[in-house]
Design a protein that fits this description.
With 279 residues, the protein is mostly helical. It has 14 helices and two strands.
């Protein structure tokens, strides 16, 4: 390569690195601002001029999670998000395998029906849900929120995992059955390990969607089983919004998602690129 070509290549690489760094800064700035606000005093948090030098104040975390008893809301959110993810995967992954491998009459119509359950506006579904769960005496329980969140996460699991299973050659199923496995055994012992990256990526999306959901949790479980998202509006008082406490709750609310993503990171990267390169 000539000197001019190497110069252009280095300039292009430098431009790409600069663009990536700029995107990282843009993405991290709101989070760092929220983190710094959670440690600011009330006057600094309300100041119209940015305050860059501050004395860290940790009382906001104590005030909101101990004095106002928001800590149980964190455990409620963890229980609901994990329960929804596990239930949605337990039902949706086998269903996606059937849609990817089996042939039966009306398969595409049934698959489209699964997708339409995700298209309905949440506000149009939550009232019938409220009436149904009221009849079953399940209101204001963590279980009712898990069931409600699973209704929209299930279609996501079926849609995503069908594509992952479709990318696995059918010969893998046949080879497993020739080795003496039943179809269910081939699915459990061969297909599931191969689809683990896709399951991890789908699990992260299910967890995030359930963790951040507000409407169902607010209407179906507004007291003892409240989630953290339902508790945040309680920091908007008649005397003003407690911005530092809101920032403290928001910081804590992001931690389980970060931890969960790091735990499945190895599979997540493979899952997001699964099927991108073939041959």
């Amino acid at each position: 390569m000539s000197g001019a070509g190497r110069g252009i290549s280095r300039a292009w690489r430098g431009a790409v690195i600069a663009a990536v760094l700029a995107m990282v800064v843009i993405a991290l700035t709101p989070y760092l601002w929220m983190l710094s606000t959670s440690f600011k005093g009330r006057l600094d948090a309300l100041s119209y001029k940015p305050v860059w030098t501050l004395k860290p104040a940790v009382e906001h975390y104590h005030d909101v999670f101990v004095d106002k008893q928001y800590l149980p809301l964190v455990w409620n959110s963890v229980f609901v998000a994990l329960g929804t993810t596990i239930l949605s995967l337990a039902i949706g992954v086998p269903a996606a395998y059937v849609f990817a491998r089996s042939r039966f009459r009306g398969k595409e119509d049934l698959f489209f029906f699964f997708l339409t359950t995700r298209m309905a506006p949440a506000i149009s579904v939550v009232v019938p849900m409220y009436l149904l769960f009221n009849k079953l005496h399940l209101l204001d329980t963590k279980l009712v929120v898990v069931l409600a969140h699973s209704t929209f996460n299930l279609s996501l699991v079926v849609w995503m995992m069908r594509g992952f299973f479709a990318d696995i050659p059918p010969q893998m199923d046949e080879a497993a059955q020739l080795d003496g496995h039943t179809r269910a055994g081939a699915f459990a012992r061969v297909l599931l390990p191969l689809a683990a990256p896709g399951i991890a990526a789908t699990a992260v999306l299910c967890f995030i969607l359930s963790w951040n959901e507000f409407l169902y949790a607010f209407i179906l479980a507004s007291f003892d089983s409240r989630t953290l998202t339902v508790g945040i509006p309680g920091l908007v008082t008649p005397h003003g919004t407690l911005w530092a406490q809101v920032a403290a709750v928001a910081v804590v609310a992001t931690l389980p998602i970060i931890v969960f993503t790091i735990v499945v990171q190895r599979h997540l990267v493979r899952g997001l690129t699964f099927g991108a390169v073939k041959g």
